[in-house]
Amino acid sequence: MLNTLRDITQAVAAAHSLETALEVLVSATKAAMETQCCSIYILEEQELVLSATDGLEKRAVGHVRMPLSQGLVGLAAEREEAVNLADARLHPRFKLFPEVAEEEYRAFLAVPIIYQKAVVGVIVVQQASARQFSEGEEAFLMTLAAQLAMAIRGLRQKAQVSAHQQQILFQGTPASNGIAIAHAFVLGGEISLEQAEVRCQDIAQEAQRLVAAMGRCKDAIGALSQRFDREQDEEVVSIFNALQLLLDDASLGGEYAREVQLGWAAESAVSRVSLRYIQQFLAMEDPYLKERASDIRDLGQKVLRQLIEPERLELEPDKPVILIAREADATMLAEFPRQKLAGIVTELGGVNSHGAILARALGVPAITGVEQLLTADIDQKLLVVNASRGQLMVSPSPAIVSEYRSLISAQKALQRQYAQELALPSVTTDGLRIGLYLNAGLLSGVASEIAEGADGIGLYRTEIPFMLQQRFPSESEQIHVYQQVLQAASGRPVVMRTLDVGGDKPLPYFPIKEDNPFLGWRGIRLSLDHPELFLV
Known about the structure:
Blueprint: H1 2-14, H2 18-33, E1 37-44, E2 47-54, E3 65-67, H3 71-79, E4 83-85, E5 107-115, E6 118-127, H4 135-164, E7 168-171, E8 173-176, E9 179-186, H5 203-230, H6 234-246, H7 252-261, H8 266-282, H9 287-308, E10 321-325, H10 330-335, E11 341-346, H11 354-362, E12 366-368, E13 382-386, E14 391-394, H12 398-422, E15 437-440, H13 446-451, E16 456-461, H14 463-467, H15 475-489, E17 494-497, H16 524-529, H17 531-535
Helix pairs in contact: 1-2, 1-4, 2-4, 5-6, 5-7, 5-9, 7-8, 8-9
């Protein structure tokens, strides 16, 4: 039997297409098991589709579809285990599909084909005489299904790649995982930072214009900050607080004002200061500091917009869209209606940008660093964003859209299953209680997840509030954050990690230079060397 298994698996793997492979599979399996019928059903969009058969009506291939909740084939996929029946007609889940002409068959054996914990299909053998398939036959089919899972998945992916090659495919950097399918909403009309350098005639009047523009900026950013403060997104609030601080006299706001006092028009002043500091930050080696250049650009463009066209930009598409922009800053995303934002794709930005942090906090799939995006003429076109792989597909084929809708449905089904099981006690079959703890860094969602059955917080990443500041957070600021964490835990245990910065989590105000920062001076080693930080 081992030779037979090997021969069938190799023949399937060698096939040039999924259709050919499935035809080979059903014929070879029928012959090997000496049965009268073998069929295979492939899972598409949470429906099992008859994809090949040797024994049923050939014309039904591709047309017979059933949800997982129907039929004995659905039962095998739903339970993820074999269904072995001497007479299938006697089972309450038996459902007859007249178009497949299976009336004569009684004996029934169905085995799910599972790849990486996900059902990809079901293989079925049938026989006219009522009898139970033996343990040996069941074991053979289960072993065959296990060996075929990778080959079938590989052939499906090959078919997808072939379809991808017939359409536009962009590659970027994953910033917030997930999948989105929607039409493009290209956001242009950005205010350029490179304004003409113009001298002013009346310094006092220009200074007044600048102060008014910065005041409107502060009000707009403050309103967004209050909105997220109400939603207890402390980390996102700190992003807006940092932008407001940049407008202070001791920061960029003061630099703008000094340029006006030197005789420059307000627009020229903002442009000169912004470009100067952007150039300095982009010249830095630290990737986190490089990305802070985007904050300076974001703020400069906001002040310029208030100077040039102070009317607030309205972002209200008719239905959920994938936002396409040169760079998505935090305030732009916060202003965008959440229910209308399916995904985000940008030319600039990185995984540590404030836009990426906000995308993750909102749970929106996002890709950054997609080159030549705005010149591709994709506005209003259907897009598929696979942010987990950093892929953007433009005008995908119906087969690709169907495949990704199936993935989204499977993810939602899995989340529903998790939600249903979350309240159940974490107890092994021999009665041992296992603690279920959260791994948390953002405050958003912690309270609801605790309420849904978690036993506490097994790891709270204290470095997140540090990364979202332009300085070490004060004792009172840390108390405020940690208090919210403890209140969300409602008396359950909380384990807080000591400051773990360095490597992929640099602090702009506390640079660490090491050959291998991922195994070096961080966590408890850093804390013990800096008791003044640790004690606070």
